Amino acid sequence: GGSYPQKNAEILSSQYGINLFLAGLLLTFAWAVHAVGISKSHLLSYLITLMLIQLLWMLWYLCRSCTQRRLIRDKDTHAGARWLRCGITLFAVITLILDSFKMGYYIDFSNCLSPTEGIFPVTHAVHTILQVYFLWCHAKDIIQSFKTLERFGVIHSVFTNLLLWTNGVLTESKHQLNEHKERLITLGFGNITIVLDDHAPQCNCTTTTLCSIFSQGIYYLYPFNIEYHILASTMLYVLWKNIGRKVEHHQQHKTPFKFHGITVGMIFGLIVLTSTIAIVVVYLIQIGRSKIKSELALTMFYLHAIFVLALMCTAGIVALLIYRLEDRSLDNSKNPARKLDAELLVGTAAGSWLLSWGSILAIICAQAHPKYTWYNLPYSVLVIIEKYIQNLFIIESVHREQEKVNDNIKTLRIVTISRGSTLSLAPSYKEIYNGRAARDSGEVPCLFKGSVCRRENDGHGSAKEEMNQENNSVIHSASDFSFYSRTSVTSSKRRVLKNIAVFLFLCNLSLWIPPAFGCRPEYDNGLEEIVFGFEPWIIVVNLAMPFSIFYRMHSAASLFEVNCKT
User: Fold this and answer.
1) What's the pTM?
2) Which of 25, 38, 293, 425 could form a disulfide with 289 if both were Cys (CB 3.0 to 4.6 A apart)?
């Protein structure tokens, strides 16, 4: 009976959040298409209102937590990992720099901009600071009081961050689209109508140099702002799912990140990361300069991406084969954070799959094929395959139970008694005590601390004593050899898996950089626009690209966890 009203509260709060999000989404869309009567100030006013409501709720929650700080509260040890909170803090710091750029931009264009464009970055900066503090202190909380009110407060925060993420994605996409339209002319696609979607202020800047720095710098910082809000929304969603949850109390093993034994994966990953940064720099410089330079830039990008994706597929297959050779059970306990991670991996991968299948169909159906477009075919196929393999590896890794030390494994010190009653201590060994020695000798083995096991039967002859001593020595040697053989094999497998996880972690960071900073061949290829039409394909790219970008960052975070757990 007690769970029924709480289930209703969960349903009501989720519906409230969805309606909040849909209203903001429609307002964002109306501003994007220049709907009559809808301006940017209306959208920003709505977002400011949502942030102020969330600020009030967070302040109330923090004050109530301070008054109850002596109470022992349940915590979800899987939620809000330290590395995740460090990551969101880094993105938040860069977001604050973005807000300062927006403030400077507003000051320079204050004569023709709405006051909301000056209020928004200030409110957003305060919202960012308090939200990061809130997540650092309370991301692991399992709320058991004021549950109905807290559900509405947390879900409001989730969809507020999703709307801020949507606003950032749209603003950044419109900027990328304008640059893309200009570059298409250099590739020879003159039959596509080029109409720039300009939201620039209709007045002159007071300081030209500063305005240029602010306007250009804002769009280079947007990728970090986008990642910040999507990470915040996922952490808050886990907090919402944990409200009223009953947790089994068990010891959670800490899994710190260690650099030992991952040299190979680190070296290869850093090589991929460095080469990717170089490719992105050359791509952004060459694309749009001339038709030949643009085609060379696209060819260079595709060849590099094909090589990296092939390596990632190979590494993922090797890791899955190692898992098939092991016989370890999966952890199927209830875990909202782990479940959300798996759902986000598969859900956001659909964005890349959509773009890849669009490119494959365009290559098949197109009548003319420039040479560089053929490299798009293996690239698109490998994107699909690589995500299949990587998702399977990550999901299985986070669900595998960690190795536990068997209770039968003991640390023994072997004591041998010589004929002259002299005690000699052999080195310590780790062996499995399972009673076989007892059955072989007909006696019960004696385990002791700081004392000597005396013989129970003094009448035994010296010949039998020597024989038993030799048998025990053989048993100890065989058991010791067997234990260290198994340990060596397990250690080798673990070392290979850790190197694979680190390599894939750095590769996913590398593949996040190109689309996040404007290196998007899906825009510049041009073949898809001819087959599907310019506007339909651009809509598909603008919808799918944010999920594709988020997938890489989320995969990198998941692989970091896999490396710590392995």
Assistant:
1) 0.72
2) 293
